[in-house]
Write a structure and sequence with these properties.
about 210 residues; alpha/beta; Rossmann fold; three-stranded parallel β-sheet; binds 1-O-pyrophosphono-5-O-phosphono-alpha-D-ribofuranose; binds uracil
Length: about 210
Protein backbone atom coordinates (compact mmCIF):
# COMPACT_ATOMS: atom_id res chain seq x y z
CA UNK A 1 0.00 0.00 0.00
CA UNK A 2 1.39 3.36 -1.01
CA UNK A 3 0.28 5.73 1.75
CA UNK A 4 2.65 8.58 2.56
CA UNK A 5 1.96 10.46 5.78
CA UNK A 6 3.97 13.67 5.58
CA UNK A 7 5.41 14.29 9.03
CA UNK A 8 7.29 17.57 8.60
CA UNK A 9 7.06 19.58 11.86
CA UNK A 10 5.51 22.53 10.03
CA UNK A 11 2.91 20.23 8.47
CA UNK A 12 1.97 18.98 11.95
CA UNK A 13 1.72 22.54 13.27
CA UNK A 14 -0.51 23.65 10.40
CA UNK A 15 -2.73 20.58 10.78
CA UNK A 16 -3.25 21.45 14.44
CA UNK A 17 -4.43 24.89 13.36
CA UNK A 18 -6.88 23.30 10.92
CA UNK A 19 -8.21 20.89 13.54
CA UNK A 20 -8.78 23.68 16.08
CA UNK A 21 -12.53 24.39 16.11
CA UNK A 22 -11.88 28.05 17.00
CA UNK A 23 -9.83 28.77 13.85
CA UNK A 24 -11.84 31.24 11.73
CA UNK A 25 -12.18 30.83 7.93
CA UNK A 26 -9.51 33.41 6.95
CA UNK A 27 -6.89 31.75 9.17
CA UNK A 28 -8.11 28.29 8.12
CA UNK A 29 -7.49 29.23 4.48
CA UNK A 30 -3.95 30.40 5.29
CA UNK A 31 -3.09 27.20 7.17
CA UNK A 32 -4.64 25.16 4.38
CA UNK A 33 -2.67 27.00 1.71
CA UNK A 34 0.73 26.45 3.34
CA UNK A 35 0.00 22.84 4.28
CA UNK A 36 -1.16 22.10 0.74
CA UNK A 37 2.12 23.54 -0.58
CA UNK A 38 4.08 21.12 1.61
CA UNK A 39 1.90 18.16 0.58
CA UNK A 40 2.14 18.97 -3.13
CA UNK A 41 5.92 19.28 -2.91
CA UNK A 42 6.10 15.80 -1.37
CA UNK A 43 3.61 14.36 -3.84
CA UNK A 44 5.61 15.57 -6.85
CA UNK A 45 8.99 14.12 -5.87
CA UNK A 46 8.81 11.64 -8.77
CA UNK A 47 8.23 14.23 -11.51
CA UNK A 48 10.81 13.68 -14.23
CA UNK A 49 13.70 16.05 -14.82
CA UNK A 50 16.23 16.16 -17.61
CA UNK A 51 19.84 17.08 -17.21
CA UNK A 52 21.31 19.81 -19.37
CA UNK A 53 23.60 22.70 -18.61
CA UNK A 54 23.36 26.18 -17.17
CA UNK A 55 25.76 29.11 -17.40
CA UNK A 56 26.42 30.49 -13.94
CA UNK A 57 28.21 33.86 -13.78
CA UNK A 58 31.44 31.83 -13.40
CA UNK A 59 31.20 28.67 -15.51
CA UNK A 60 29.04 26.08 -17.21
CA UNK A 61 27.63 23.36 -14.96
CA UNK A 62 25.29 20.37 -15.35
CA UNK A 63 21.77 21.37 -14.35
CA UNK A 64 18.33 19.75 -14.08
CA UNK A 65 15.10 21.09 -15.48
CA UNK A 66 11.56 19.71 -15.20
CA UNK A 67 10.85 17.63 -18.28
CA UNK A 68 7.38 16.26 -17.55
CA UNK A 69 4.12 18.15 -17.88
CA UNK A 70 1.81 18.28 -14.88
CA UNK A 71 -1.92 18.50 -14.35
CA UNK A 72 -3.83 19.39 -11.23
CA UNK A 73 -7.45 18.43 -10.71
CA UNK A 74 -9.19 19.71 -7.58
CA UNK A 75 -12.41 18.02 -6.48
CA UNK A 76 -14.95 20.79 -5.88
CA UNK A 77 -15.48 22.41 -3.54
CA UNK A 78 -12.87 21.82 -0.85
CA UNK A 79 -10.19 20.76 -3.34
CA UNK A 80 -10.14 24.32 -4.70
CA UNK A 81 -8.08 25.26 -1.64
CA UNK A 82 -5.21 23.21 -3.13
CA UNK A 83 -5.28 24.76 -6.60
CA UNK A 84 -3.46 28.04 -5.85
CA UNK A 85 -0.61 26.26 -4.04
CA UNK A 86 -0.23 23.93 -7.05
CA UNK A 87 -0.25 26.85 -9.49
CA UNK A 88 2.35 28.77 -7.52
CA UNK A 89 4.70 25.77 -7.48
CA UNK A 90 4.04 24.70 -11.08
CA UNK A 91 2.74 27.70 -13.04
CA UNK A 92 2.38 25.73 -16.28
CA UNK A 93 0.13 22.94 -15.01
CA UNK A 94 -2.97 21.98 -16.95
CA UNK A 95 -6.03 22.36 -14.73
CA UNK A 96 -9.16 20.24 -14.67
CA UNK A 97 -12.16 20.28 -12.34
CA UNK A 98 -14.36 17.53 -10.93
CA UNK A 99 -17.51 18.43 -9.00
CA UNK A 100 -18.62 15.80 -6.49
CA UNK A 101 -20.97 16.21 -3.55
CA UNK A 102 -21.76 13.68 -0.84
CA UNK A 103 -25.38 13.10 0.05
CA UNK A 104 -26.02 14.11 3.67
CA UNK A 105 -28.17 10.97 4.10
CA UNK A 106 -26.06 8.27 2.43
CA UNK A 107 -22.57 9.89 2.25
CA UNK A 108 -22.42 8.67 -1.36
CA UNK A 109 -20.96 11.28 -3.70
CA UNK A 110 -22.71 12.23 -6.93
CA UNK A 111 -20.98 13.93 -9.81
CA UNK A 112 -22.31 17.36 -10.92
CA UNK A 113 -19.41 18.69 -13.03
CA UNK A 114 -16.41 17.40 -14.93
CA UNK A 115 -14.08 19.41 -17.14
CA UNK A 116 -10.78 17.69 -17.81
CA UNK A 117 -7.94 18.33 -20.22
CA UNK A 118 -6.32 15.41 -22.06
CA UNK A 119 -4.10 13.96 -19.35
CA UNK A 120 -1.99 11.50 -21.31
CA UNK A 121 1.63 11.62 -20.14
CA UNK A 122 0.95 14.31 -17.54
CA UNK A 123 1.93 13.79 -13.92
CA UNK A 124 -1.55 14.30 -12.48
CA UNK A 125 -2.39 15.52 -8.99
CA UNK A 126 -5.91 14.76 -7.78
CA UNK A 127 -6.56 17.14 -4.88
CA UNK A 128 -9.19 16.80 -2.16
CA UNK A 129 -8.35 17.56 1.47
CA UNK A 130 -10.68 14.93 2.97
CA UNK A 131 -10.57 11.19 2.23
CA UNK A 132 -13.42 9.88 4.37
CA UNK A 133 -15.25 6.88 2.86
CA UNK A 134 -12.96 7.24 -0.15
CA UNK A 135 -15.94 7.34 -2.51
CA UNK A 136 -15.23 10.83 -3.90
CA UNK A 137 -11.51 10.26 -4.41
CA UNK A 138 -12.05 6.86 -6.00
CA UNK A 139 -14.69 8.20 -8.43
CA UNK A 140 -12.47 11.15 -9.32
CA UNK A 141 -9.43 8.99 -10.04
CA UNK A 142 -11.55 6.69 -12.23
CA UNK A 143 -12.51 9.78 -14.26
CA UNK A 144 -8.87 10.83 -14.52
CA UNK A 145 -7.92 7.37 -15.77
CA UNK A 146 -10.67 7.49 -18.38
CA UNK A 147 -9.08 10.74 -19.63
CA UNK A 148 -5.70 9.06 -20.04
CA UNK A 149 -4.23 10.25 -16.75
CA UNK A 150 -1.08 8.69 -15.41
CA UNK A 151 0.93 8.70 -13.33
CA UNK A 152 -1.68 9.92 -10.83
CA UNK A 153 -1.16 10.86 -7.19
CA UNK A 154 -3.90 11.57 -4.65
CA UNK A 155 -3.23 14.52 -2.32
CA UNK A 156 -5.31 14.87 0.85
CA UNK A 157 -4.96 16.61 4.21
CA UNK A 158 -6.72 14.04 6.41
CA UNK A 159 -7.50 10.42 5.55
CA UNK A 160 -9.61 7.84 7.38
CA UNK A 161 -8.57 4.17 7.46
CA UNK A 162 -11.88 3.13 5.83
CA UNK A 163 -11.29 5.51 2.93
CA UNK A 164 -7.69 4.47 2.47
CA UNK A 165 -8.74 0.80 2.32
CA UNK A 166 -11.39 1.52 -0.33
CA UNK A 167 -9.08 3.74 -2.35
CA UNK A 168 -6.13 1.36 -2.47
CA UNK A 169 -8.46 -1.52 -3.34
CA UNK A 170 -9.92 0.47 -6.26
CA UNK A 171 -6.64 2.14 -7.31
CA UNK A 172 -3.63 0.19 -6.04
CA UNK A 173 -1.43 2.04 -8.55
CA UNK A 174 -2.18 5.51 -7.12
CA UNK A 175 -0.19 6.65 -4.06
CA UNK A 176 -1.86 8.80 -1.40
CA UNK A 177 -0.07 11.74 0.21
CA UNK A 178 -1.66 13.06 3.39
CA UNK A 179 -0.82 15.00 6.53
CA UNK A 180 -2.70 12.58 8.80
CA UNK A 181 -4.19 9.12 8.97
CA UNK A 182 -7.00 9.56 11.51
CA UNK A 183 -8.76 7.00 13.70
CA UNK A 184 -12.15 6.23 12.12
CA UNK A 185 -15.40 7.53 10.66
CA UNK A 186 -18.43 8.39 12.80
CA UNK A 187 -22.03 7.34 12.01
CA UNK A 188 -22.38 10.33 9.67
CA UNK A 189 -19.16 9.31 7.84
CA UNK A 190 -17.20 12.26 9.22
CA UNK A 191 -13.57 11.69 10.11
CA UNK A 192 -12.61 11.37 13.81
CA UNK A 193 -10.86 13.29 15.25
CA UNK A 194 -10.84 15.10 11.88
CA UNK A 195 -11.45 18.79 11.53
CA UNK A 196 -15.13 18.97 10.57
CA UNK A 197 -16.41 19.83 7.12
CA UNK A 198 -13.45 21.21 5.20
CA UNK A 199 -15.54 23.10 2.65
CA UNK A 200 -17.67 24.73 5.34
CA UNK A 201 -14.61 25.74 7.35
CA UNK A 202 -12.89 27.19 4.30
CA UNK A 203 -15.82 29.21 3.10
CA UNK A 204 -17.70 29.96 6.34
CA UNK A 205 -20.81 27.98 5.32
CA UNK A 206 -22.87 25.34 7.11
C1 LIG B 1 -16.20 16.43 1.18
C2 LIG B 1 -14.71 16.45 0.89
C3 LIG B 1 -14.56 15.31 -0.08
C4 LIG B 1 -15.59 14.32 0.40
C5 LIG B 1 -14.89 13.21 1.14
O1 LIG B 1 -16.89 17.03 0.15
O2 LIG B 1 -14.26 17.66 0.37
O3 LIG B 1 -14.81 15.67 -1.42
O4 LIG B 1 -16.46 15.03 1.28
O5 LIG B 1 -15.80 12.25 1.54
P1 LIG B 1 -15.77 10.76 0.98
O6 LIG B 1 -14.36 10.29 1.06
O7 LIG B 1 -16.68 10.05 1.95
O8 LIG B 1 -16.32 10.76 -0.41
P2 LIG B 1 -18.46 17.32 0.16
O9 LIG B 1 -19.19 16.24 -0.53
O10 LIG B 1 -18.90 17.64 1.55
O11 LIG B 1 -18.58 18.58 -0.79
P3 LIG B 1 -17.97 20.05 -0.63
O12 LIG B 1 -16.48 19.96 -0.83
O13 LIG B 1 -18.66 20.77 -1.74
O14 LIG B 1 -18.33 20.57 0.73
N1 LIG C 1 -15.84 15.66 4.33
C1 LIG C 1 -15.36 16.58 5.20
O1 LIG C 1 -15.21 17.76 4.83
N2 LIG C 1 -15.06 16.18 6.45
C2 LIG C 1 -15.19 14.90 6.86
O2 LIG C 1 -14.88 14.59 8.02
C3 LIG C 1 -15.70 13.96 5.96
C4 LIG C 1 -16.00 14.36 4.69
Amino acid sequence: MSLHVVDHPLAKHLLTGLRDATTPPDQFRRYSDTLSTILILEATKEVRTQQGEVETPLETTPADRLSQGLAVVPILRAGMSMLDPALRLFPNVAVGYIGLERSHETAVAHSYYCKLPMLKGLFTLCCDPMLATGGSASQAVSLLKSHGGGPIVMVTVVAAPEGVTKFVTDHPDVPIFTAALDRELNDMKYILPGLGDYGDRLYGTE
